[in-house]
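Re-run with default settings, no changes from the original entry. Doing this only to confirm the output is reproducible before filing.
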Amino acid sequence: MAIQVGDKAPDFELRDNHGATVKLSDFRGRKNVLLVFYPFAFTGVCTGELGELRENLPKFSDRDTQVLAVSNDSVPTLRVFGEQEGLEFPLLSDFWPHGEASRAYGVFAEDKGCAVRGTFVIDKEGIVRWTVVNGMPDARDPNEYVTALDTL
């Protein structure tokens, strides 16, 4: 079961598509975080969703929000994916230990070996303020993220 609104967001330390370490706690007190889990790079729905995030980045930065996208892909895979798609936000690798962050958020599908589509809006204090979890084939609407951020 996914973590709920009002829960403290589990901290994590993951490598991004450039090999840099990113910790959720690094944003505490500084920025809200839009944490988006997605199944796999280079797949149709995931590519479309991350492209929508790319197109909406100004809306998130205007709301003092850092976008972090997490999949169970390896760092080299995410590097190529980010370059090909022109993604200018961190793509975080939950590859090893496999699915550790996804499991902490309750969005890892053991039978598929990857995260489902879970999104968490986390405020500057590290508290989950909004969440949605969709099945693997069901794309999310980034306008819902903006609406949720406007309530912070």
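The chain is about 25% helix and 25% strand. The helical segments are 44-55, 57-61, 75-85, 100-104, 142-149.
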